Amino acid sequence: MRLLPAAITLPLLIASSMAFAQDKVVNIYSARHYPTDEALYSDFTKVSGIKINRVDADDAGILARLKAEGAASPADVILLVDAARLWRAEVDGLFLPVQSKTLQAAIPDNLHAKPADNGAIAWFGLSTRARVVVYDKLKFNKSDVDSYEKLADPKLKGALCIRSGSHPYNLSLFGAMTEHLGVEKTETWLKGLVDNMARSPKGGDTDQIKGVASGECGVAVTNTYYLARMMRSANPADKAVTERIGVVFPNQSSWGTHVNVAGGAVARHAKNPDNAIKFLEYLASPSAQNHFANGNNEWPAAKGVSFDNPALKAMTGGSFKSELIPISAVGMNQIKVQQMLDRVGFK
Known about the structure:
Blueprint: H1 6-23, E1 25-30, H2 38-48, E2 51-56, H3 59-69, E3 77-80, H4 83-91, H5 101-106, E4 124-136, E5 160-161, H6 168-181, H7 183-196, H8 205-214, E6 219-223, H9 224-231, H10 236-244, E7 245-248, E8 259-266, H11 273-283, H12 286-296, E9 299-300, H13 310-316, H14 327-332, H15 334-344
Helix pairs in contact: 6-7, 6-15, 7-15, 8-10
């Protein structure tokens, strides 16, 4: 056997090792700031041998960074926590549409981007958060708030607490309402919300929940994972809050409760696209989906996944009727919604 000179073999070995290292890495830009996700990352590396490099920022910061970096961006995977931002990034061309039989089989059609002509999909929802109503059980009945429309009923005047209308969680809810009701009726509904406010919008969803428990508000709107977090807390004060309030999954007798998605996509200029797809497919697997539920109190997005989270099960018995309008349609209504908010004075 003929041996190559060292001057030739050393560069070949270096090049080979560099290629191997490139094959075994995936670079993630993530808006998920949940310590429990660390187990997901380490498990993926364990089962795949692919190392994860991660940059954490909020949704807006990630999108701004991708635009600034352009083709030089090292990002392979983008993880965002709001449907409107996923849609915006798709429209801005920041994602690389991909074809994955695994992802398309696991994720329902309404929880991913509309397929391109060739069947490729720009992003996939990986977990969901229901937008529910909590109410003071001493002041109101469940039937008073069992639909989003009833939040604008004059009987709730001075009772409603809600975070800023321009927060992505509310923009997505209001975008869904626009899809259901049309612009004119949605604007009338938004004006009703403003008229019923107990105070100007402020704080996060946990603040709205506590506002109901303290008596400052009679009803409030929150994402389920904030409420589930308090229900599972060992803090006596949190337990006292959850005992005072009731929770309603609105519109169970009509189109279903609004859900927002946290999702993922392959970055437009991914240097490791195959590894990026493997990571997204892993996040759609039953084990990862169960972790979303148990670790961060989110509802699984994949079909047929069971979970053991006691707080989520206590809220609904484990399941509820969710709306089925495409998330992409919700995103497309964002500009209309912002204009309506301005007109009705919803800060």
